[in-house]
Amino acid sequence: MTVTPILAEMSGSIHVGLCGLGSAIGVGLVGMKASEAVGRNPGAFGKVITLAVLGMALAEAIVFYALFLVKSGP
Question: Which sign does the torsion angle of CA 43, 45, 46, 52 carry?
Fold first, then answer.
């Protein structure tokens, strides 16, 4: 009888969860700073929102990479 560690039995699920947590924090920070920038300079709304949406999309893409690359269970 072999004993496998608990982390080995999860087969990568914890990595996907941590990736999702990091991505959610990143999206929140981008949104916070974008709204702060627009509050300081309302005339730059178009440029700020474009860059903010692009940054949020890149942060969200990391979660999809993790979901596609995670190992499937047996």
Answer: positive
pTM score over 0.90: no
Question: Which domains are delineated in the chain?
Answer: 13-68 (1.20.20.10)
- The DSSP secondary structure of 19-66, one letter per residue, reads HHHHHHHHHHHHHHHHHHHHHH-GGGHHHHHHHHHHHHHHHHHHHHHH
CB of 13 within 8 A of CB of 70? Answer: yes
Distance CA 53, CA 63 (A): 16
Angle between helices 45-69 and 13-40 (to 10 degrees): 180
Q: Which residues contact 72 (CB under 8 A, 6 or more apart)?
A: 11
Tens of pLDDT, residue by residue over 51-65, are: 999 999 999 998 888
